[in-house]
Amino acid sequence: MSDERHPRTLNPEPSPAPVYDYDLPPSLIAQQPLERRSDARLLVVDRAAQSFVHRHVRDLPELLRPGDCLVVNDTRVIAATLIGRRASTGGRWQGLFLDADAQGCWRILCKTRGKLAPGDVVMLQDRELRDRVALRLIEKQDEGVWIAKCDSRDAALDLLEMLGRVPLPHYIRDGMMTDADRQTYQTVFAKEPGAIAAPTAGLHFTVDLLKRLKDMGVVLARLTLHVGVGTFRPIKTEAVEEHTMHAEWGRLDEAEAAKINAAREAGGRVVAVGTTTTRLLESAGASGKVEPWNGSTDLFIRPPYEFRSVDQLMTNFHLPRSTLLVLVRTFGGDALIRRAYEEAIREEYRFYSYGDAMLIV
Length: 361
Known about the structure:
Layout: E1 41-46, E2 51-56, H1 60-63, E3 69-73, E4 75-77, E5 81-86, E6 92-100, E7 105-112, E8 121-125, E9 131-140, E10 145-150, H2 156-163, H3 181-184, E11 192-195, H4 207-215, E12 219-225, E13 248-252, H5 254-265, E14 270-273, H6 275-284, E15 293-297, E16 312-316, H7 323-332, H8 334-346, E17 357-360
Parallel strand pairs: 1-17, 3-12, 3-14, 4-11, 14-16
Antiparallel strand pairs: 1-2, 5-6, 5-8, 6-7, 7-10, 8-9, 9-10, 12-13, 13-15, 16-17
Helix pairs in contact: 7-8
């Protein structure tokens, strides 16, 4: 592979966003995970043969080889959805916690009837809808984001654990969590808290499946990319290239980078579990070799793009006009992945976060 840096230039001919649309029957949007997550179907997409094979996630030990390196995102989803009432009117309020700074100021997305103004106070409620903490709005920023501050000295993550709900996407039960989601919307290797959405390809793995892969000689490497709201914002611009990709924080430790490089140098393939893993691997591997990483990335993978660090990609099926779908079609080849989605719909695969997956080889 060439050692030139990633092509980051725009397409010679801009890609109109509507080419990333597709029609999906609502009945195929998974509302619950399977009882055994590794029983999910797996559409194996072969780029060389331009063909498909229908398998299951539990078959991965038959599809990977000893010496391959499976890279997973160990971010942990935080209870980022907040419910409350406006102190002045008693009206219902809903918020999504994004992050907090060292001074204790929160960045949140707000949804309520009426117009919010700086100085407004929201009473955050626990899961039994009891008033617990006052949240004062300070300043409105772009795209509906507010700066706010709580009247509690507790750390943000502690308050979220006490008050927050699982931030399910709207297409799963209108975002209404059940107690089961606290476990099922989390990967078995989740460790580092900070994501407001799950790295969904990782949801298919079980402790038993990871052990089977390890026993056959597959190397497991971990990185962290805290999935933010920017990943899931739809592309609303006329051309894909005009979309602004929001930055997300990630880390790849030196020891994990060494594992990935050693596997590749020995002839193993780097198999990225998910588009979030792919983004950080490609950010850290711009020189052709994966380097340790600690910081933000706003890499928007779209045509034309030469992948440096990822050989195979396991991923769920993504929303139309999403940057995730653009990434997958860039990796797998536009025409082939279009056909793969048509095949998955025809075969009634389950779509989105709690749905089935594909492996692009």
